[in-house]
Amino acid sequence: MVSDKILISVCIANFNGEEILFECLDSIVRQVGDFSVEIIVHDDCSTDGSLNLLHEVFPNVQVIVSKNNVGFCVANNRMVAAARGRYVLLLNNDAVLLQGALQTLLAYAESLGKQAILGLPQYAYGGGGLIDCGSDLDLFLNAVPNQHWRKGDVAVVIGACFWINKELWHELGGFPESFHALAEDTYLCCRARLAGYPVRIAPGSGFLHRVGYSLGGGKATAGELHTRVERRRLTERNKTFALLACSPGVSFFFLLPIHLLMLCLEGGGVSLLTCRYKIWRDIYLACFKALWRERRWLARFRVETQCKRSCTLVDYFSVFRILPQKFRMLMIYGFPRIS
Question: Could you tell me the domains of the chain?
Fold first, then answer.
């Protein structure tokens, strides 16, 4: 990394990540290329030894210390505001870059000739198996993992390894801070597609990811789906917010009511089968309450998101799947185990 001018800013949101932060940062330091990189870490009021690790082992890393726990979205917005690079890579502290990752992203970004959101193939930490090369979406913004190497356009690039031009980040408005965490990547990718910007996976290299390390769940284990109440609550609420904001034109009037009906049926079914009213109250009812409580902000949020739309309905939905992903997962794994 020999250029004097900062070209790439790698931003890492960290909360109590002492056990995993070294490997993440070391994978960045070991990247090779004729470009200059700065590393920014936002420490979200950690109570472990994260700050000592940063100061003692990585003294050249710029550290933003938060006095309060502000969440993933605010942390990334703060880091991008402080970043000096033309390109920004948002990287989870539970992610590890493979060799050549930054060079691959930079070369692909500069070959496109226009601003874009990019990602890399995602591999499971430990086993090394391919998880996805980005994801498509169903009509209700549930991610459908893409396993096709040659497919360029995708609907979503996972926020664990999220490359974007800094100028485009500011144009799109960054992550909605009210999301706190989860589905913020889905929203920003959908907003980029609405505005006519591509969302793609850069072919080559990749990253390892400890899926579910931070918030728990998020993957199938021993033949069943497992998640946590807090993760599911944030996911369902934020996907609903993103659907409301991003559904283009008349599709909004069909998709949102169907989505809300499906949430009612899903929440009622899971709660009855598990005999746990808490699941309905803390996940699904909480989503409807949030919609009502934030209705004025959501109305402005939709207008703000739609005003920059430049794509057609056909273009927007070209990377969407008709079959609901939750139905497909139900057929494979049954109802998720929620703890």
Answer: 6-209 (3.90.550.10), 219-338 (no CATH)
